[in-house]
Structures are given as structure tokens and as C-alpha cells.
Amino acid sequence: MDAESGAAGDVALVGWSEGDLWLLRRTNAPEMTAHLGGPESEEQLAIRHRRYVQLDGTGRMFRVVAGGETVGSIGYWEREWRGEKVWETGWGVLPEFQGRGLATRAAVAVAAEARAAGRHRFLHAFPRVENPPSNAVCRRAGFTLLGPVEMEYPKGTWMTSNDWRLDLTEPIPGDR
């Protein structure tokens, strides 16, 4: 995988750019944010987009492309978790592309990107316990379930999430 794009199966990751605000708006729909506290304001989206574009060595955001179409977004970023720096990941696949395994393939690809970035041994995902599709993505992508945790997201809103962890020093599903 090169610095601009990683691939897993028929899914490619394309680095987030100035022109990707439209995708952020699409993934901000109520049905896409039900497990994340609901849609953000246009101002919040502009701030998030700027943060995605400006990520330096502390993570990367990507458009997920399959069959030549943008199908969603995924990324990894640095966070402090239980006394150590780790990578965290999160994703969203547009409704018309859900149920095809694209999020799982994107999660495998983003794990390879996080591994290539170095810096941290573990990649974590924290889907809400009430979000079966995202929990299934973690399981299918080779993450290990560590158990439920209380997470604050967005700020001021507490939720029970599952802590899934992938050890980036071990083979990632789909590694050749």
C-alpha cells in the first residue's frame, strides 16, 4: 500500500481531501449517526472536516472507494486509552452500500495503514453495544472483544460501547 491509498479486496482507501466535505455531510444523516449522538451542525462538520484534512502523524482519514464509487469513510487517530497511546478507528458506510462487507474490508485496510504508520501497537474500535453491524465488522476484521466500557461521545453524552482491540504486531486478516 502506498501513502495515498490502501486496498483490501475490492476496497480502496483514498486520503481525505478538501473536496470530501460532501461525504462528511452524507455520513451526518440521522440514520448514520443514531449510535453517535445524532447529526452535527454545519459548523461542527466544518470543524471536523478541517481536522480530517489537517491530520498529520496523529492519524489519517480516508474515503472508502469500491467499484469506482465512494461508499463511505474510515480513519484512525491517536488517543490516550488506559494509560497508553493507541490508535482508534471509526467508519461509516453510506446506506445504499451497507450489507456488502465493505466496512469489514475497509477496517482491514485501515488496520494495515495504521500498522504502516508505526507508533502504536494497538488499534481500538468502540462501537456502541447496541450497534450489531459495527460490532460484527470488528469481529470479522479480526479485532478481539475486550468487553464493555463507558465512553463519552459526543462530549457530555455517555454511552456503553464495546472495546475491540487489534494487535498490529500480529497478522491482519487478508495479509498476504
Automatic annotation (TrEMBL):
Gene3D superfamilies noted in UniProt: 3.40.630.30
Cell division found in the keyword field: no
Domain N-acetyltransferase: 11-164
Superkingdom field: Bacteria
Gene Ontology MF, one: protein-N-terminal-alanine acetyltransferase activity
Record-linked PROSITE patterns: GNAT (PS51186)
Protein name per Swiss-Prot or TrEMBL: Acetyltransferase (GNAT) domain-containing protein
Organism of this sequence: Actinacidiphila guanduensis
